[in-house]
Sequence to fold (184 residues):
Amino acid sequence: MDASYYQGKVCAAVVVLDFPHLKPIEQAVVEFPLSFPYIPGLLSFREAPGILAALKQLSQLPDVLIVDGHGQAHPRRFGLACHLGVWLDLPTIGCAKSILIGELAPLGAKVGSTAKLTLGTEVLGIALRTRTNVKPVYLSIGHRMDLISAAKIILACNKGYRLPEPPRQAHFLAKSACNRLKDK
Fold:
């Protein structure tokens, strides 16, 4: 799932892929009025209503949610992946493109390399290299998931890009919906 913005609206998209082939089997996108201002660290209050509306359009919920955002690797230890996972009571992985908080241990250059993301002695998540010599993604627990399983799922959902296929396809769907708004 992912979201994009245009003139007071959020375009929230969900793409469900079969596993292990990663072929799309269902998708939904909604244009939803923004009702919460941009406040750093409170993205879930801005995006969750649209994402939940898109999820309601599906014939059934996916087995695992991969959220383009953070779970426990968040200043409040409860990012978008946590909100959605707890709300839906589904296994949820936060898969972000940048670090909000914490220090990263050294990370190898090869696909599958991981490094802990920590704050003091607390492990917030991991960095995972999904392509050799390309920036990693940052995984954190959203709900009903552990970091080892999250890394295995993300690697299994990778088709040679930095982002795993589910949020990558949702990103394109959300952007496309907002581009249609721009063309109106």
